[in-house]
Amino acid sequence: MKRDWLATYTPSATAPWNRERAGHLLRRTGFSPSPQELARALDEGPQACVQRLVQDEHESERVLELDDIAPSIANGEEIELLRQWWCLRLKHTRRPLLARMALFWHDHFATSQVKVQDVGLMYRQLRLLESHALGSFDAFLKGIARDPAMVRWLDGNQNVKGRPNENFAREILELFTLGLGNYTERDIQEAARAFTGWHERRGQFAFQARLHDDGEKQVLGVCGQLDGDDVIEAIIGNPACSRFLAGKLLRAFATPDPDPEWIAAFAKYMQSTGYDMMASMHRLLASEAFFDPAHFRTRIKSPVEYVLGIARSLDLKVAGPALARATSDMGQRLLEPPSVDGWETHRGWLDSATMLVRLNYAKRALQGNHSGAHLDTLLDHHPLAGKKEIVRFACDLCFDGNEPQSLRTAFEDLKGSKRDMLREALAVALSSPEYQLA
Amino acid sequence: MHVPAAHRFAHIADDIENESDFMLHSRRQFLQRSAGAATILGSDYLLPSFLSESLRGAQPDSEGRILIIVQLSGGNDGLNMVVPYEDDLYHRLRPSLSQKASTVHPLQDGLGLHSDMRAMKDIWERGELQVVSNVGYPTPDRSHFRSMDIWHTASLDPELAQSGWLGRAVDGWDQRASADGRDAATPKALHLDSGPLPLALHARKRTVPSITSMESFQLDGDVDRLASIIAAERKQGSDDLLYVQRTALAACTNAQRIANVVEQGQTRPAYPNFGLAKRLKEIASLIAADFGPRIYYTSLGGFDTHARQALAHGPLLRELSESVAAIQSDLKRDNLDQKVLLMTFSEFGRRVKENGSRGTDHGAAAPMLLVGPAAKGGISGGTPDLANLLEGDIRHSCDFREVYATVLRDWLGVEPAPILGDARPMDGLLRS
After folding, report:
1. Which residue segment(s) compose the domain that B341 sits in?
2. Number of domains chain A is built from
3. What's the pLDDT tens digit per position in A124-168?
């Protein structure tokens, strides 16, 4: 029998709505949950929880404060401040899925300050990613093709009639929409002509009619006096686009190695919604296939997931510089992806050097000046009588309540005050190989 | 090949006997603890000997020759690096970008080095630079990513390749070492750069270590205890969990070993103030300390010069030549240059005709450089034929896999066929 990849998950005796499933949903759509977040999700049940995650939610006071100071950062010249601002927003947001989608698109439309050299433009692109993150992909592409940071990043200003520059045309086909093998070199050359004159002037998108080639073109089988929007329509009409995007979303949110039939089914659904990302993500996250235990803890966390997951789940008081530095040192320097192909995710996140930074972070996260007091607060909130309860607390927080057998000896060795034991139990859990997986 | 566990543990025991009293106690505990991990990771993951290496320190292979790879990322304009300055077509196709005959550093056959490559010319004068012209592959791909993957996997279908060409060489060394029951754990390759491990170094058996600098590679706290927690047996571990476990163990062992090199306090001469020079300097100190790898890999980025190329390309070529010259003379000082060969490559060259933005677009074939006393000293492959282009790009007259095969067989002493298939080694690149 053919599997219905889009069938909705309903809790049952064999597939109960429990810590593991709720934890899976929250890790994939956000970050490692705090005990409160997990309790809320368990209480809501899967459908209501997914509904809340994809839809609007009032932002926290801290996020609103951060938004108030955004213009002064955007008008400045320090990309590091914007990076810290973003990290703090990730720490305090009540819309984790939106945040994760924005991170996904930042990797997808990977643009780097190294070439753009304008903090304001990077900020505006980030806002663009967020505003389209759960909208229609069609409008998203039209927005990104006019985004001043993107125009600078892929040499749009050099793309003029008679002297086309292929950079943007190549990447929109290869990396943003269709993938290799689904277009020809000729498609790239003609698409480049369609985008001639799509420039950036003084930080704004500017269509330069004089420099635009309005001659006949043929891109992906569509003929006419095509301009950039026509090329985007042709791309959207090409089934390879939905397959490419469906595969990438599944790899990012469901499993690193999705079944081709799953990709095909999800692609078809995505197309049927007119590339509505909110509807598509809703369908995916509410599906039985998504909650298949075979996919639990199969993705290696990105540095942002790792660092922010620790900070959020333990409600650590961490400043922006520390968050930005930790994620950068682990290989994810936000706003400066290594190339237009984004980061190499999953196993690509880890080598012995970046793993070393994670190991050091696991240790340092609970060693700062405030951490002693913070551990005391945790002990106040959670009456942990002794070693057994402390280990249980760490395992609830980090492993959905299951104590990894591999850590048993380390947990047995805990000694000292309750505070010391809690610190050590968490350090052991956070530096374990198991915790690197989401 | 499977090695009985007892055999491998015997080696660990030997290593412990050779250790100083310091740390002995905790290391023993560490090994007792991690015995469980050995049974699951077993010979497939080389864990026991891998751990043993952390106790031993570097075991230099005095015969071992070393290969340094410098990747020029972004598509280096080979035509403006090794310049056919006597060819009128070159000057005609590059009205604003051509290197003038009066400023290039002449080599032979009408070819000369870019005016900013003075330091490389000195290496040429010593007979230690071999240029391999027009290197590429059939049906060139002009995507950065796919072409880079092709060079890294040495396969025209990189999607099908599971590993990189250097990773496969590393796998071979590991296999042989473990078959001999010898230590299989000295890292055979090291990536010293920012950014992720290049695909070329992806091995099937283990993670090749990757560090941004020696200084950055220090681990907090009790490393032995941490390693013992990480090494604990995983009964139902997925491949990904085992990958994480191996990588984390590699972090522990390599941190210890690099701390040893830093402690030895190698003093190197001054290098020019370039990023590449800084990385090559660290590579030189690791080589001088006999850290162990036979392959070092680093890169220089920024070669994707679509617009206003001259502003960027000259300084990059200067950084390349002065940095390479610095490590050559440093190694010479210690008489180590004889065992080191340096090789450059880029994912493609650039279009012969310059574009309208005083830059160049993605092209095809380009020269590779081989540097060191082992290089033959000369140019193979001749001058590029600008009158006979392929879609505006230089045709390849030499397949990059033949250069790889030559370096594997004639320098590293590795049989190329299992790594590269039927690519034939070339004559005349290296001194025999």
Report:
1. 66-166+266-420
2. 1
3. 999 999 999 999 999 999 999 999 999 999 999 999 999 999 999
What pLDDT band is residue B174 in, cutting at 50, 70 and 90?
A: confident
* Domain with A379 in it: 303-436
**Cβ(A219)–Cβ(A194) below 8 Å:** yes
Position A41, amino acid: A
Question: ipTM value of the model?
Answer: 0.94
From first CA to last CA, the distance across chain A in angstroms is: 30
Chain A interface disruption, residue of B217, B241, B309, most A CBs within 10 A: B241
Which pLDDT score, from 0 to 100, does residue B178 have?
A: 62
- Between positions 65 and 84 of A, the ones with CB within 8 A of B are none
B259 close contact with A: CB closer than 8 A: no
**Of all residues in chain A, what percent carry a pLDDT higher than 70?**
99
Is B29 among the domain residues? no
The answer to whether residue A79 is domain-embedded is no
Handedness of CA A21, A25, A28, A32 (dihedral sign): negative
Question: CA–CA separation, B223 vs B29, rounded Å?
Answer: 12
In-domain check, residue A135 = no
- Position B14 pLDDT exceeds 80: no
A357 assigned to some structural domain? yes
Sequence-separated (6 or more) residues with CB below 8 Å from residue B88:
none
Residue B180's pLDDT is what?
A: 60
* CATH assignment at residue B412: 3.40.720
Residues of A in contact with B356 (CB under 8 A): 158, 160, 162-163, 165
Chain A nearest-CA residue for B37:
A406
- For residue B282, being part of any structural domain is answered with yes
| Per-residue pLDDT band at A395 (split at 50, 70, 90) | very high
A407/B226 Cβ within 8 A: no
The answer to whether residue A356 neighbours chain B at the CB level (below 8 Å) is yes
- Across the interface, whether the CB atoms of B244 and A437 are under 8 A apart is answered yes
Cβ neighbours of A360 in B, within 8 Å: 219-220
Residue B37 in any domain: the answer is no
**pLDDT (0 to 100) of residue B56:** 37
Contact with chain A for residue B360, Cβ under 8 A? no
Contact A406 B251 (CB under 8 A): no
Instruction: State residue A305's pLDDT score.
Output: 98
Q: What percent of chain A has pLDDT over 90?
A: 87
The structural domain count of chain B equals 1
Q: What percent of chain B has pLDDT over 90?
A: 61
List the single best residue of B34, B143, B212, B360 to mutate versus A (max A Cβ within 10 A): B143
> Using the 8-state DSSP alphabet, how is residue B266 labeled?
-
Residue spans of alpha helices (H) in B180-274: 223-231, 239-264
Let me know if residue A190 belongs to a domain.
no
In a domain, B157, yes or no: yes
A384 φ/ψ sector (left φ>0, alpha ψ -120 to 50, else beta):
beta
